[in-house]
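User: Sequence in, structure out. Go.
Assistant: Echoing your sequence, followed by the structure tokens.
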Amino acid sequence: MRNYTYVIVGGGMTADAAAEGIRAADPAGTLGLISAEPHPPYNRPPLSKGLWKGEPEDSIWRKAAPAVGELHLGGRVVGIDLRTRTVTDDRGAAYGFKKLLLATGGAPRRLPLQSDQVIYFRTLDDYRRLRGLAAQRLRFAVIGGGFIGSEVAAALRMQDREVTMLVPEAGLGARVFPPALSRFLGDYYRTKGVEMRTGEGMAGLGRQGGKCVIRTTTRQELVADVVVAGLGIQPSVELAEQAGLLVENGIVVDEFCRTSHPDVYAAGDVANFPNPALGSRVRVEHEDNANTMGKVAGQNMAGRAVPYAHLPFFYSDLFELGYEAVGDVDSRLETVEDWLTPFREGVVYYLKGGRVRGVLLWNTWGQVDHARALIAESGPFTAAGLKGRLPQ
């Protein structure tokens, strides 16, 4: 059995940021990182963004964890024993710890068909596989009109491939964008050559003649060579549940990233944390949260007491359009749209009880900190009062 001061379960951006945080606070403590992936930590966003635009694959690799700890790759942790302070992987190897971080992320929601023609776009290997297929004259179907589905569809069209999107809602990003913007974005994708089938979900999936055949909720069929599933993720809480930790929409942590056990921490996609700006618990599945929360968790594991009070943002590139979003951007909230040019450049504010809970910066850059400050204000705000509030 290998014994470490710190053990990190997970090998993504959160894990690497935590390794950096640990080493900043404790130059000497031993560190072991256990990851089911065969690769050392890397940045995920370029997999659906920059790599499709010509950025080199070598640019994605992270630096901290390989430099300061021992990496155990290709082994999935299957058990935690808090009494003996050990974790065990699926190869039978055991690792002792004094402090443990669960940076287990999430697993893609799965389709009913088991086939190598279905890709769940999450990992470097998924990217490499899809990039290889995109070099062929194949027809691609993208299921889902959310964050990943929209980015992958744009990436494939930029390779001049036939792409059909199957989107249950009336437009793209309907859970985030106001209805008119969501519909505009669907029409914008049509102008880019994407076949958009909005208001049409998947009812079944099978294979016929070497093709994937999707049966839709409108009793139609969609035939494709490759299906990319962009159905979101489910937080990987199985280890936490097995260990008896408190789980509720992720692993519940306090402001110091501690779980219900004082020597076990959680961070990143899997962590449900209190956010003071929003006055509620949230779970965030984006890069900024992974990097910032991971580093804070690492510092606190190593003896510091740094509260995680950060309000994360996320961003996306959609052909020539792009955005940054801060806070709770939920289209079910009251929205106030302030357009410099309708649907091309502007700001959308999301309100609840007279307070700004989220801000969408649509083709508007350099305003994330101003948006955070606005969310922190107590209000109340009116639609008229928000017009022109953030510079564009």
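User: And one key feature?
Assistant: The radius of gyration is 22 Å.
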